Amino acid sequence: MDIQLLDSAVEMLAPCRRRVWRLWSVLLSVSAITVVLLWRSHEEVTTSDETERDDWVAVRLGRDQKEYVDHRGVHVVVGHYMGEANNLQNPPNLTEELLNSNMFDPRPNQGKDGQPVVIPSHELLKMQQLFHINRFNLMASDRIPLNRSLPDVRKKRCQSKSVNLTGLPAATVIIVFHNEAWSTLLRTVHSVVNRSPRSLLQEVLLVDDASTRAFLKEPLDQHVAMLPVPTRVLRTHERVGLVRARLLGAREARGQILTFLDAHCECTVGWLESLISRVAEDRTRVVCPVIDIINDDSFAYVRSFELHWGAFNWELHFRWYTLGGGEIKRRKQDITEPFRTPAMAGGLFAMDKDYFFEIGAYDEQMEIWGGENLELSFRVWQCGGSVEIAPCSHVGHLFRKSSPYTFPGGVGEVLYSNLARVALVWMDDWKEFYFKFNPAAARLRDRQSVRSRLELRERLQCKSFEWYLDNVWPQHFMPKDDRFFGKIRSRESGRCLQKPVGKGSINQPVGSATVVTCTAEPNLLQMFVMSPSGVIMTDESVCLDAPERDDSARQPKVRIMACSGTGRQKWSYSEQTFALRHASSGLCLSTGPDEALILQACSGHIGQQWQLESVPWK
Ligand SMILES: [Mn+2]
């Protein structure tokens, strides 16, 4: 409000005094920018000092970066479903006229080389209002040219490794959108056109899923007609959702390779050849790029980590977790080699067109968005294909903190129906585990007709979900018949081990291991899995750990931390003495002075006695 008043005061001043004001504001902005830049470069230095691994370190680590990346574990939420679809606390005055106007206003150097855009202070109010339209900084996006430059964020070995393009099949790039901003949509398209070898790019297909914005109609058709690569806009007559819109694009595609992108991406050099060459070698590979981060406030391009793969938690929400041990070892031999991933984020991947249809394309009964990435991941793996991440292919994706989309029928209903379908078709016994602990999905279970998908699974003679867990994701933290699943209760106090509620990042709960009052109803917070190799773990890939060295602290504290596959997270349990012994130190899990747990020399004392109470999970 103050800024607006100041602005109108300036307008009333005489021309010469206005010039003085302008000069002052220019000087002020310049110094503000300098301070920001100095602060940023300082932060970059301090952050990179804190880590030994350069793998996930961002090119430019902004303040917001912490929300996405940390030392280990899960840090990026690729799904948009975490946001309540229409949770506008102070709905700004967004008129139809404003929504339908294209405010694209490029300034030559804004966002250059992936740099952040700085909005001058007198425009902040307008900026905040516009933010609500797409849930990202539309004003910043609209100032960046469609062909902005980006850094080559690939590893040096990727940059020097040349891909032989001769004989490689060409791709149709399919981009589905619904009321996307002009600048983000077309920057996606221009980055594809500018940074793909022409011989590998057959065409671009834009699928408009019933957008209502005026500028996405005629003006879009006219713009794409001028592009040097054949580009078509396909339009659905009514809102059909991501899955059916992608299917429409896939059926129309003329290229041999389907490459799906979200409508707010930016491709970097080398992105396409690294994907296509893998599919050309083996048509059953589904290949994903490394997904970098376009900051939703500043539009800075931030390099993401390469040492994570995709998986899911007990609620079937997609997550990034630290790569499994075997893959890390294999990767050390050649960091440019693609690595397998249990699941894909879903927005960005390439696969052979014929293979896509042979293995059942998409489940057309899935509505709008969500769960289709797990469905495709399970199906590809269980039916003989593979899903992998190509580290030499980097594509930036605009991550938002909430979803701008409307979900007809409500976000929960749509998502849980889709996930119920995934569970019913692909997860065998583990569907019971999912429904047991996710009542919102269980309520929708009987409404799903999945016969045709089960027939598909039969026809393709796909493997079991147990095979998938054992072979594709051996580090998983799901319950299984060969392992304990249930509560860990102190025989001294009768209390139960509970997962911390404090979160080290968006998703992964880390903190002290504590015991609290046991709940009567099965409660996921108090459920733990103990694998045959002695790892005590729970949802979100966190494990019982004792990071303090035995000699430095007399009574090392026990913590719950990201599972690492190291010996420090191994325990053994004795049904005779009820002791939980920490393998690497030989000490025993003991109740401490308060709720927290510690390690102590094993004495058989009642404070070291634990009851492992199995809970049926299917
Ligand atoms: Mn997206």
TrEMBL record:
One of its GO terms (molecular function) is metal ion binding. SUPFAM superfamilies: Nucleotide-diphospho-sugar transferases, Ricin B-like lectins. The keyword Transmembrane applies. Pathway: Protein modification; protein glycosylation. It is found in: Golgi apparatus membrane. The lineage of its organism: Eukaryota, Metazoa, Ecdysozoa, Arthropoda, Hexapoda. This is Polypeptide N-acetylgalactosaminyltransferase. Coiled coil: none annotated. It is a single-pass type II membrane protein. Its cofactor is Mn(2+). The keyword ATP-binding does not apply. Its EC number is 2.4.1.-. It comes from Zootermopsis nevadensis. The chain crosses the membrane at residues 21-39. GO terms for biological process: protein O-linked glycosylation. Belongs to the glycosyltransferase 2 family. GalNAc-T subfamily. InterPro entries: GalNAc-T, Glyco_trans_2-like, Nucleotide-diphossugar_trans, Ricin_B-like_lectins, Ricin_B_lectin. Residues 482-613 form the Ricin B lectin domain. GO terms for cellular component: Golgi membrane. Keywords: Disulfide bond, Glycosyltransferase, Golgi apparatus, Lectin, Manganese, Membrane, Metal-binding, Signal-anchor, Transferase, Transmembrane, Transmembrane helix. Gene3D superfamilies: 2.80.10.50, Spore Coat Polysaccharide Biosynthesis Protein SpsA, Chain A.
